[in-house]
Amino acid sequence: MEVENSHIEGNNNNNNNFNNNNNNMVKDVSLQQLKVTLSEFARVRGWEQYHSPRNLLLALVGEVGELSEIFQWRGEVAKGLPNWSPRDKEHLEEELSDVLLYLVQLADVCGLDLGQAALAKIVKNARKYPVINLSD
After folding, report:
1. What's the pTM?
2. Going residue by residue through the chain (136 aa), what tens digit of pLDDT does each one get?
3. Of 92, 95, 114, 96, which is closest to residue 105 (Cα–Cα)?
């Protein structure tokens, strides 16, 4: 992964935890990469002691609340967010990322493989909701 350890470990003198240069950003990120990076991020800061399943769930719920506030008074929103400003889209990216990161951490501390669980759930949903041929 292209993220430098000095940024994860906080050895950077500016306020950016990661390099914001898009040339150095990872394009396809796996859940495993996120899990490992988040684990190290928490470890070097001594935050592991606070990352119980309960605490992570409560943090996740808080972030979902922040995400919902973005949409609260907008009414229906078109796919691709064509009427949103770049600033609003960036805010949405940040809140979605917060939700994802807490979800990955929660699955990790619970000892669950989130990727495999998601794939299994898709299969279960496919059985529960079979394709219906609407052209008949």
Report:
1. 0.80
2. 445 555 566 655 444 444 444 445 668 999 999 999 999 999 999 999 999 999 999 999 999 999 999 999 999 999 999 999 999 999 999 999 999 999 999 999 999 999 999 999 999 999 999 999 877 6
3. 114
The full DSSP string for 40-76 is HHHHHHT-GGG--HHHHHHHHHHHHHHHHHHHTTT-S
Q: How far is Cα of residue 66 from the mean position of the Cα atoms in its chain? A: 14
CA distance 86 to 69: 17
> Helix 114-128 and helix 31-45: axis angle, to 10°?
140
Which domain range does residue 55 map to?
50-73+82-113
Kindly give the residue spans of alpha helices, DSSP state H, lying in the chain.
5-8, 31-45, 53-71, 86-109, 114-128
Contact 8, 44 (CB under 8 A): yes
User: Which CATH number characterizes residue 68's domain?
Assistant: 1.10.287.1080
